[in-house]
Amino acid sequence: MTKAAPAWLVPVAAICILQTTASFMSRFIPIIAPAVSDEFGWSGSSIGYLTASNSLGGLAMLVGGSTLLKQVGGVRTLQITLLLGAASMALFLQSALSIVLAACFLMGLSNGTANPAGSEVLQRFSPPGKRNLIFSIKQAGVPLGGVIAGLAIPVMVILVGWRITLLACVLLVVMPPMLTWRLSPHVDQTAGSPRWHVTMPTLQSLRTLKVPLQALTHNRGLLRISVVGSLFAVSQSCWFTFTVIYLIDGLHFSLGLAGVVFAIMQAGGVIGRVALGWLSDRLRSPNASLSTAAILSATTTLLLGLSSPAWPLWSIIFLAFVAGSSAASWNGVQIAEVARRSPPGMISETSAGSSILVNLVNMLAPTAFAAFVSAGGSYGYAFGLAGVCTLLVLVVLPRDGKAR
To answer: Which residue ranges does the record assign to the Major facilitator superfamily (MFS) profile domain (predicted)?
Structure first.
């Protein structure tokens, strides 16, 4: 007689798969954009605007989507935003950059849904003895989506062209929400049946949007650790957005090889998130682990700007892996520190406020990077400025001793 699967396994697996799918869709943009840009005559820096629009969609959902999540349910909302994003991907067939910018915005809605929906489901279903591990696995789904995108998309573009690749990616995004569609009523915690009538924002509800940011001012350490996340996001967003196009335009890599390097960077993020969390617990000092990540992140970003076609391939691969392990590994420790410093009963507000700051940087940093390059600045100087911003983490980190 076979042992039945634990009751928590299916909902936890479903939300992890859906979050990985949302990440895959956002990483799709900077990887396929070079091929699309070549055909439609867009500049290489336009990829920064596409990624910024994607981040804006996530920010809009993070700030204004709480009503939808409560009325319809977190899993159902994530499924709906993934399907909407998949439909929007077809707009990449249009040569008008403004239309593709709108598509990227709609694709970004699922990113703003994934974290609150995933956290709510995991909090209810994860066994207490395995909760930290399961939350870590869920967070690792973000770079895992990038690994899949980096390995699969360039190969498909080379073999069948970017249009067929686009269709295949649409199908990959559609399948998880469709396969998990019937699971939502059993997982979502809504009062009775989901209500599909969404209340329009009122003046009073709009005023509540400032609550998460105001919550960060409760104490100085909380505000500083939230700014730390924003500074880390500068280098992270530039690595995620411009690595592929820089390797192609600046170092003369093929799209396939650039995709492999991108995937290695994302794999470094999977390993780095777990390793940095372990190091922080081991040292009982989040400041020590975050300082290490900041130094490595800034150094690798500066070195990427200094790289040239004469550098051996192994050095670029090693640089990308270390960057993924540092520039994309800070999230878990920083989120935990925000929660630790939050006033009792305000963890959700402070977490949302910190996430809003990070998402603002995810939108503004690629935009500024693209504008700088478009104005005649080099990729090298742009990466250098991003690295200097992240190095400011060492100045902003709260100096109040070890973790409690």
So the answer is: 1-404
Do residues 139 and 332 touch, judged by C-beta distance below 8 A? yes
Q: How many domains does the chain have?
A: 2
24 and 132: one domain? yes
- The dihedral built from the CA positions of residue 257, 259, 263 and 264, taken in this order, carries a sign that is positive
226's tokens:
């939230």
pLDDT for 117 equals 73
**23 is written with which tokens?**
């990440």
Count of helices and strands (H, E) across the chain: 18, 0
Domain that holds residue 109: 8-178
Q: Which of 397, 402, 358 shows the shortest CA–CA distance to 225?
A: 397
Q: Which residue has the higher pLDDT, 136 or 284?
A: 284
pLDDT tens digits, residue range 304-332?
Answer: 999 999 999 999 999 999 999 988 888 87
Residues 174 and 214 in one domain: no
Quick one: 75 exposed, middle or buried, by C-beta within 10 A (0-12, 13-18, 19+)?
buried
Angstrom distance (rounded) from CA 349 to CA 250:
42
Mean of pLDDT values over 138-145: 77
Give the separation between CA 387 and CA 355, rounded to whole angstroms. Answer: 21
Residues 6+ apart with CB under 8 A from 311: 251
Among residues 269, 43, 241, 245, the alpha carbon closest in space to that of 154 is found at 245
Distance linking the first and last C-alpha atoms of the chain: 46
Position 404 pLDDT exceeds 50: no
Point out the domain boundary residue: 133, 158, 178.
178
Domain end position, chosen among 159, 178, 197 = 178
292 and 167 assigned to the same domain: no
